[in-house]
Design brief:
3 helices; elongated; 2 strands; mainly alpha; about 140 residues
Length: about 140
């Protein structure tokens, strides 16, 4: 933008990637960390050429920063980290309370849709809450 006339400059093509650059957020994709709906936070490796870049989208800044920390360490998102392993007992405690209510003798295939939904929601929320608690106790890397 020209600050003298306040007129937007026309977009120019990048030398390494001719053609139109998409400047939009890919709706309908899931967060690369927690698989929630994305909300406009993105990441890519700037060291890769444009044609070979892999773009990742996130639902929030905490998910984006968690992925970035792991990417800097060279870790993949499929492995459990130390923090995720620490969060598992809290998830099991929350699940145990719900299973007490449902009944331990009932097979998962016989649960109603509402019971299964509650199990999933309780598991995900307990994991998110515990991960947030663990992250708040650790030192911010910047």
């Amino acid at each position: 933008m020209s600050h003298v006339a306040q007129i937007a400059s026309p977009p120019t093509e990048a030398a390494d990637c001719p053609g139109f650059d998409r400047l939009w957020h890919p709706r309908g994709t899931l967060c690369a960390v927690c698989t929630s709906r994305t909300r406009g936070f993105g990441w890519f490796d700037p060291n890769q050429p444009r044609a070979k870049r892999t773009y990742r989208w996130f639902c929030s800044m905490p998910c984006q920063s968690a992925f970035t920390r792991k990417a800097k360490k060279g870790l993949t998102m499929t492995d459990f980290t130390e923090e995720e392993t620490q969060a598992l007992p809290a998830v099991m405690r929350a699940l145990a309370l719900e299973m007490e209510r449902i009944g331990w003798d009932r097979p998962l295939g016989q649960l109603s849709q509402n019971d299964m939904h509650r199990l999933i929601v309780i598991t995900v929320e307990a994991f998110r809450t515990e991960m947030l608690e663990i992250a708040s106790l650790s030192e911010v890397p910047f």
